[in-house]
Amino acid sequence: MLSGSRVELSRPVSDEIRKTTCYMCACRCGIDVHLKDGKIRYIEGNRDHPVNRGVLCAKGSAGIMQHYAPARLKAPMLRTGPRGSGEFREISWDEALSLATDWLGDVRRTDPRKLAFFTGRDQSQSLTGYWAQQFGTPNYAAHGGFCSVNMAAAGIMTLGGAFWEFGSPDWDRTKLFILFGVAEDHDSNPIKIGISKVKQRGARFVSVNPVRTGYSAIADNWIGIRPGTDGLLILALVHELLKARKIDVDYIVRYSNASWLVIDAPGSADHGLFARDGEGRPQIHETVTGLIVPHGTRGARPALSGRFTLPDGRFAIPSFQLLAEEYLDPKYAPETVAAETGVPAETIRGLAAEIARVAFEQVIEVPQPWTDMNGERHDSFIGRPVSFHAMRGISAHSNGFQTARALHMLQVLIGAVDCPGAFRFEPPYPKPVDEHPKPHGRAEHFGSSQPLSGPHLGFPRGPEDLLVDEEGRPTRIDKAFSWEAPIAAHGLMHMVIANAHAGDPYPVDVLFLYMANMAWNSSMNTAGVIRMLEDKELETGEYRIPKIIYSDAYYSEMVAYADLVLPDTTYLERYDCISLLDRPITEPDAVQDAIRWPVVEPDRDVRAFQSVLLDLGARLRLPGFADHLGKPLYRDYADYIVRHERRPGIGPLAGFRGSEGEKTGRGAANPDQLRRYIENGSFFSAHIPPEAQFMKHANRAYQDFAVRMGFFDTPQPVIFQLYSEILQKFWLSAEGVREPVAPEAHRERILKAFTPLPSWYRPLEEDGIDRAAFPYHAITQRPMAMYHSWGSMNAWLRQIHTSNPLYVPGVICDEVGLQDGDWAWVISHHGRIKVQIARSDAVNRDTMWTWNAIGKRGGTWGLDPGAPEARKGFLVNHLIHELLPPKGDGMRWSNSDPVTGQAAWYDLRVRIEKAEPGEASEPRFPSIANDAEAPNELRYGQEWSQ
Amino acid sequence: MHPAFSIIVFTTASGMGYGLATVLGLGLLDPAALSTKLAHVLALGLIGAGLVSSTLHLGNPQRAWRAFSQWKSSWLSREGVMAVVAFVPLCISAWSVIFEDACLDWAGLIGSGLSLLTVYCTAMIYASLRSVDAWHTRLTPACYLLFALAGGTLFASFFASAGESSAAHGLSATAIALLIAAWVVKIRWRRRLKNLTPLSNPESATGLGAIGRVRLLERPHMTENYLTREMGFRIARKHAEKLFRLALIFGGAVPIVLMVLCLLPGLSGGLTALLLFVAVLSHALGILLERWLFFAEARHAVMNYYGGREQDLRAV
Amino acid sequence: MTSLPALPTPKKLGLVIDLDVCVGCHACVVSCKEWNTGGYGSALSDQQPYGADVSGAWLNRIHTFEIMPESGEVVGEAGEARIVHFPKSCLHCEEAPCVTVCPTGASYKRLDDGIVLVDEEKCIGCGLCAWACPYGAREMDLAAGVMKKCTLCIDRIYNETLEEVDRVPACVRTCPSNARHFGDLADPDSDVSRMVAVRGGIDLMPEQGTRPVNKYLPPRPRKPLAAGTSSLPKAENTDDAKGFLAWLDGMLDRI
Fold first, then answer.
1. Any CB–CB contact under 8 A between B316 and chain A?
2. Are residues A790 and A873 in the same domain?
3. Which residues does B198 contact at the CB level (< 8 Å), separation at least 6?
4. If you ran DSSP here, which 8-state letter would residue A863 be given?
5. Which of C26, C39, C82 lies nearest to residue A785, judging by beta carbons?
6. Does A363 reach chain B within 8 Å, measured CB to CB?
7. Are residues A776 and A752 both part of a single domain?
8. Which domains can be identified in chain C, with CATH numbers?
9. What is the ipTM of this complex?
10. Residue A218 near chain B (CB below 8 Å)
11. Separation in Å, CA of C157 to nearest CA in chain B
């Protein structure tokens, strides 16, 4: 029988392919959307796209179900019932925008602080930030504060760039890849592609993670560390490497501040700061002449140790000597840290030895001559092929900033930053901290009906840049850049509702949120936050937080708490730009950006949030959004993407600029730009010249390229800051010897956390509770098939993670008498949850874990109130308080990293008790009324069946 | 395996129907007796009802006719073909008895043979599946055939008794012997099941046995799916034991005791028939339980991918 | 015809799945569903897609297993449980029991390439093929009442409207970690056959006698970190900072 005859083999897949950019997570892969009969037939990865090279993850492949989900909002809504009831009436856009304009206009005229504008999974922060700045409120940030600001801030302050999406391991060359913590939710396809390359090449992949799931499952070596002790492990590695003399001395002399002289004058305001000359240049001790000269002096041979007398008579020591003395201390010996980290001493030694072996014995060379910033010519790029990556795993601890600093220090010590085979920067990084703005938001920065005088977010260079008033009180609603969180480079979105509710530092009038599920999984102490949103003033009966405007595409838990809902489009119905001004999609070898465009038209009364924001900006007559007559400057977001210029010739998109589309980076606006992008597959890529591809921090060709591209106006090389003067300034303030002096209450925290050299301290919650009463850790992992809370409305993805068990180590199960499927109470200092457990042995023995954000509130996300997500699914958020347990100092400190304010999600300590069998997890919340019409059966694509 | 009601009813009904038809085909009962005519009608009715019941679980019953095409390879197809083929002599035989008051020996004997063959095909549908260890044995068709014959003989003895036929006692005695034989084989079948080392296990299913002992950590999808609903059925062992004892009592002990009573001299014909009728009903109930357990206790190899071993261990 | 091909098929198209690099991301699972729900045969339906008892028909699923080493076989990791993500779809067996049990001829194995397919027009939805398959490769579509299974994307691999590079199954094309490979396992020189030879590719449940075409590449043996030999050599001079700084000075002189 000719079996082929029974099947039609060459049926065309679709009528048309439209290429755009995925938004099922923050990875931003290129996708080919196949359309058939006006419907989406199929979405696959774009083979030409530099991010995903044709592959696509589960989320991206489930885009159809995201796009057609019944949970989509359909029209603007005004709340009619009490908050949380889900009672709304649909209103017109005109009414919605007029109302929003009234609310916001009042605030802007009277007291712009009273608008708190925070965005969640926003991929247009360059617009939202600009809008907030033009509005004039000091209270703007995206969600980085509860995401991974520790990683970003530590990276930028140490290397001028961070892991995250601002750099990447050299997947094609690395011979040892070490991954710290959970990292499955960002840059996911590039990492999967990369890990696979590493493994298939026979290189070694080591994972340091309490849980052996996700990427860790395929690691050649899994180090099941105790949560929150990664920093100690890293410093033990540094100890071992120093002891064995396995450091790249030449590299640290050239590219780090190892030789910079640190003033040794205890008790003085300058103690521990760099010795600088009259022009502010850091000084070194030149060994040949014995002179103190500025760093960068041609031909100078700097000392890395010794004690030298400065021209003013004070003593100074090269920072590297301080570093060596600190980490050679036996307190960092593998034997000493083994118990705390849960990692055997021989494993630590083995890992250190492997790092040393690969870095120094497996050196690779890329035969490409290049010139450094001193004009010195090098014949080739020397590669120390040890690469690292980390994300929120080490970031979401209250010691995460210093842990990330420690990791970057380790990279620098072995000479493995931006060289072949190591971690490599992705443009526009590296970017020195001095090239970042300082934060704005002090009283003098804003006022009635005027823009904020500069960007909200940035990096303070010392306590003098904090956003506090004369009494040292925070001026921002989230207390970012205050003594409580001095380097809160991404703000503290997780504190906004609690602070606004408490009126501390002041109440707000309008809370304006975009894509942030603060009434559920994005908040610590979820039940408490819900109460705060529902809480009313006794006298007036008004809500404590009077007006909440929320924009999202889907009926999330937060929608039910909004007063005015602005429905966003799905990602396939809108324009977007993935801009170099924002979170870029560049690669180490290429500068890239991308767009989205409406590949299908909305079938509901919804508008893209960015266009709505532009509309609101014009209605409010914000500068930059309306002309002096009040006429809108931009038709919509697409128009803004093309015509907006941040600096002359620099706009949201770098590609196809100039009147003919011939310019890259800098160039006049091109009215045809979006069409050119669409023709090019919705992305733009410009290769970095070969001689500029490595050592970007000190590479003349790269720096020139960066200036040509418009990243900077002058070259901005980076000297790696092993020793941080910025941190030392805070430390001096806390010592009380340097102005401005830190308020008494903050000193202890600052002295502990703001060490100029990377340090490790016990996570604050663990330190503040009775460790014996809460002997275990409870953490979440990021499922690769679900992005945060953003997949349960997706009929296909939700079948993969319909509910989440708590995975409990076998030893604890045996101790407590738990079996698969049993129910247990998990109890923290703050609360307790009842959950169903599953046994696992592939986990640190003190750590239980679950998948993040699977639990949902009944009635939301277009799901049946009895859906497993709402019945059995659960959040650990109920166990985590936004404040640390009281310490007896009269203060309740934020459950955050004291440096950056990063939410310390992973510091949670718990105990576990067997519970009576149950049907549903606890705590329970009343279901939210929602009239989304969901079908009982889906047969997607049946009309095309053969 | 999921004990689907329609399939249990089908195998029970058609088993008894074919068993009865087999015995009737031997021509031992008086064709002129009303009870014999009713027996023929009932045999055909049971067979027909069973077959109709078996189509209830089909996704597309309107295409059921296609199932006759693959008799070369498929026991299910063979069963279908045999069922249809057997109907011809069975109907002729029944016609002859009902309307002509005569036994057509050739039709009866052919009908008997084909009936047993059909039951064998039914049994072989299960016995041929290597994926279900419990079924993959010659004992499976042996059980099916013996239960069909025993049930049929018991049934026939009732009709014989009701028709005051002289064959009644002989049939009862034979039925007792067949019932004992059937249950002996069934107990052996079940002992085999309990002592079975599964052909496949999570280690061979994943090929990962070289690394260590394999257990399911996470299902592919959290909720039940077709496979787990169809193959993942499980019953606690102590419930199974209890049910099996009930099956043995209703399906074996009660009918045997009743038949022994009937064999005692001095019982009136009416009482004998009544006792035998109760025996038939009891037997049918027992066989329903036996068939339910036949499915419920069988483990499918696919459960090696779905944590079946752990569930079994916990269920002990 | 549900008899299996009398002779070995000239081609044995199938998948090779590399368990050493599969991270369990479910990309192949969803891409498969997405491609096939609008392609070969009826849609892959979902019941109660937004309800309490959600389920659906999928042709490829990823199981996650935890493996506890029982002996010291895996050096340095004995006692440490390991997780393996395990994608599973139809293995297109040479002795496919699902084919021979089919009463209607709906299930068949193609003579030329060995792909096992269901002709949905003939399928009565009796479910016996799913019982016969030890691997759980077949799932009934409850809406259409017909059996669904992996087609190896037969409507892709021979589809002349697709670019040649895309003529692979959807799961293979989308896999981010390159854990899935497609090819002719009858050809000993094909990439997939070589891979199987080099890595010791295995059959699932060989004892079932199904002779699967798809092969699985087992996780590579782990190289321990904590073996005695991998310790760093002791430095010549003393351990403390003084000795270190002396060494450093020596290094600086050499730069």
1. no
2. yes
3. B133, B299, B301, B304
4. -
5. C26
6. no
7. no
8. 13-228 (3.30.70.20)
9. 0.96
10. no
11. 26
Going along chain B from its start, the domains and CATH numbers come out as 5-315 (1.20.1630.10)
And the tokens for A89?
């009436």
Q: Which residues from chain C sit within 8 angstroms of residue B70, using beta carbons?
A: 1-2, 102-105
Is the CB of C244 less than 8 angstroms away from the CB of A328? Answer: yes
Residue whose C-alpha is closest to residue C138's, from C96, C105, C184: C96
From B315's Cα to the closest Cα of chain A, the distance in A is 12
Which of A586-617 are b and which e, b meaning 16 or more Cβ less than 10 Å from the residue's Cβ? bbbbbbbbbbbbbbbebeeebbbbbbbbbbbb
Please tell me if residue C246 touches chain B, with a CB cutoff of 8 Å: no
Q: Same domain for A782 and A888?
A: yes
- Residue ranges of A 322-351 with Cβ closer than 8 A to chain C: 324-325, 328, 344, 346-347, 349-351
Same domain, A749 and A878: no
Residue A665: per-residue pLDDT: 94
Whether chain C has a CB inside 8 Å of the CB on B202: the answer is yes
Which chain A residues touch C170 with a CB distance below 8 Å? Answer: 44
Contacts of C68 in chain A (CB under 8 A): 841
Q: Is B246 helix (H, G, I), strand (E, B) or coil?
A: helix
Any idea what the CATH number is for the domain that residue A24 is in? Answer: 2.20.25.90
Do A737 and A839 share a structural domain? Answer: no
- Percentage of residues in chain A having pLDDT higher than 90: 94
The one-letter code for the residue type at A341 is T
Q: Do A746 and A822 reside in the same domain of the chain?
A: no
- d(CA A690, CA A706) in angstroms, rounded, equals 14
CA dist C92 and A176 (Å) reads 38
The answer to whether A507 touches A500, Cβ cutoff 8 Å, is: yes
Contact residues, chain B, for C203 at CB < 8 Å: 207
Would you list the DSSP string of B115-130? HHHHHHHHHHHHHT-T
pLDDT of amino acid C78: 53
Rounded to an integer, what distance in angstroms lies between the CA atom of residue B23 and that of residue B153? 6
Which of A869, A874, A871 minimizes the C-alpha distance to A795?
A: A869
Residue B100, Cβ neighbours under 10 Å: how many?
A: 11
- Whole-angstrom distance, CA of residue A909 vs CA of residue A591: 43
Give chain A's domain count: 3
Q: Minimal Cα–Cα distance from B212 to chain C, Å? A: 4
Give the bridge partners for C56, in sequence order.
Answer: C46
Which residue in A262, A116, A207, A82 sits closest to A926, CA to CA? A82
Record: contact A819-B310, CB cut-off 8 A: no
For the segment B60-69, what is each residue's pLDDT rounded down to a tens digit? 999 999 999 9
Across the interface, whether the CB atoms of B314 and A820 are under 8 A apart is answered: yes
> Of A104-108, A190-194, A579-583, where does mean pLDDT reach its minimum?
A579-583
**Is the Cβ pair A802, B217 closer than 8 Å?**
no
Strands C13-18 and C215-217, bridge-based pairing:
parallel
Name the β-bridge partners of A777: A847, A909
Between CA B278 and CA B181 the distance in angstroms is: 21
**The pTM of the whole model exceeds 0.80:** yes
Mean pLDDT on B247-262: 96
CB–CB of B305 and C74 under 8 A? no
pLDDT at residue C73, rounded to an integer: 44
A841 to C25: CB separation less than 8 angstroms, yes or no: no
Q: Which domain holds residue A745?
A: 723-756
Buried b / exposed e over C147-185, threshold 16 CB at 10 Å, is bbbbbbbbbbbebeebeeebbbbbbbbbbbbbbbbbbbb
CATH at residue A792: 2.40.40.20
Does a cis peptide bond (omega within 30 degrees of 0) precede residue C188? Answer: no
User: Which chains reach chain A with 3 or more Cβ–Cβ distances below 8 angstroms?
Assistant: B, C
The candidate with the shortest Cα–Cα distance to A833, out of A913, A905, A915, A923, is: A923
